[in-house]
Amino acid sequence: MDVDEFRVRGKEMVDYICMYMNTLRKRRVTPSVEPGYLRAALPSEAPMHPEPWDDVMGDIESKIMPGVTHWQHPHFHAYFPAGNAYPSILGDMLSAGIGCIGFSWAASPACTELEVIMLDWMGKAIGLPPAFLPFEEGSKGGGVIEGSASECVLVSMLAARAAGIKRLKHQFPTVDEGLLLSKLIAYCSKEAHSCVEKAAMISFVKLRILQPDEHGCLRGETLKEAMEEDEEAGLVPFFVATTLGTTSCCSFDNLPEIGPVVRKFPSVWLHVDAAYAGSSFLCPEHKYHLAGIEYADSFNTNPNKLMLTAFDCSLLWVTNKYLLTSALVVDPLYLQHCYDHTAIDYRHWGIPLSRRFRSLKLWFMLRSYGISGLQKYVRRHCELAKYFEQLVRKDSRFEVVNQVKLGLVCFRLLGSPDENHETVDELNKKLLSTMNASGKIHMVPASVRDQYVIRFCVVYQHATREDIEYAWDTITDFATELLEGPDKERDLNEERARRHRAALAHKRSFFVRMVSDPKIYNPAINKTPPPMPTSPGTPPSVAPASPDTPSEAGSIQLVPSTPKQSSWISWPLAFFFQSVDHDANDLPLRFRHLDTMVRLKSPNHGRRGSSPGASPERRAPSPSAN
Ligand code: PLP
User: Fold this and answer.
1) What whole-number distance in Å separates Cα of residue 134 and Cα of residue 164?
2) Which pLDDT tens digit goes with each residue over 525-563?
3) Are the C-beta atoms of 362 and 303 separated by less than 8 Å?
4) What is the distance in A from the centroid of ligand 1 to the CA of 466?
5) How far apart are CA 136 and CA 163, in angstroms?
6) Phi, psi (deg, nearest 5) at residue 171
7) CB 314 near ligand 1, within 6 Å
8) In terms of pTM, does the model score above 0.90?
9) How far apart are the CA of 279 and the centre of ligand 1, in A?
């Protein structure tokens, strides 16, 4: 394709996108294809000779589109919004056109400098404290665009891990880093996004997952108890991940309580994940959610969720860029340049070397909407969710199960009073799967207070009250059919049997996967018993529920000193050991891992008793060399 043809085809492509946007309503929201549909429709090898452009484009409509889930569809209410405003699409287009790779300042100075400035504009607009901003007097802070919120969490954890190991190494210079690593423990709420657990797996650290309160909010006291208990047990708290706007139910952790707790422990890194909610802080009326942010070391948000910006655009700010970059720096000769002491080289701020000119998207978005235009969008988004909430509350067959603060409403059918918890869950699963299968609307479930709920998110950029009413009419039509249809009981039984047969397939299914619920990817969490009260003064014990539980599981439940807290620890690489042959091991694997850890701590003392958790060695105050 030469430049003249590109000019023509480029305009045609814009026309095609406009046609797509304008006719979205006529399409099903979700495709009705089976896995492998596309392989059957395409040749098994790449063409040897060039094909006419019109043929290639023609196949988009006939072959690709039937398998597309239309995230920009007015009836798509799943997950969170996937920003896609035209100025950001044009920003992406220009970035592709310029085609520079901005890994260092010298590799394309404008690419780096615009990113620094856009992060400064954004940080100020959402109300981050000066410590996060690059140009403030005495600030060591700054921001960067990463590929996803998961990456933001991971690099923050890696930076905290490096700082934690460095500190321990200073204290215990002769102890091997591997042993020091085994002492580190991170924390998050059960409501945190699964990317925190993934980050812990990659970082090879333990993660203690804590029970939030009844509103899905992690409280300071819960964190304090857990951190003190672990410190007492010889572990070293190093990272706390909090969330403002959780994925399941858009709850907010209590930063003003958590911050002071974290600060009581030496050098613990506090991260705040506001992937969805962060853009709402552009509005003064939502800024109160940022209370306590002054305690944080890092903060991330995705303008590609609630700020209309096309994926990918995940913003991460830190208060100490040196801690971040010292964890990620590698500096071969071919990447060095004569300004590397005075300019930022973003390759040290993340995992990949190569990076696109993503700040152009923010440039076009911020300038063409202005903060006021973005505020207007956020406000309409929240108002429509409130409207949907009102509609649900008016229908006595349903309940709303979350506090609706932004654009997410979690609701469920109540079922009849004689129906038990499981039957009501089944009823809601049935309702959701029928609606999704119809192609008329798309939502996903979540688990809120251990109940199966349906998440309704306002997603469509130009959503109106009519769209919300359409959604509610569709939901209530399906609900009426389900509740008053002729064979409700038989239907439910059939559904249960079908689910049982297809359990594995279901776990993988796009339509029924829970959002950010550790139970879904970690079956052990379902199996761990409720917390057992122990007598006062009893040391915390690590208690596999039964000999076979831990090797099946990705976690071990900590029996807490008070019955109110239930939490579990995710162990690095636990999943790799799931298929371990139980008979070949006298102790389950992770149990033995812990045992190894205990013995490393205190080589001169033999194991006392069969429970490592109850052994005094586990309570050793600090790591020691073997
Ligand atoms: N954190 C929160 C609170 C989220 O809601 C999500 C996704 O919805 C993520 C992290 C992961 O986002 P990403 O897909 O950008 O990694």
Assistant:
1) 24
2) 444 444 443 333 333 333 333 333 333 334 444 444 444
3) yes
4) 29
5) 24
6) -75, -40
7) yes
8) no
9) 13
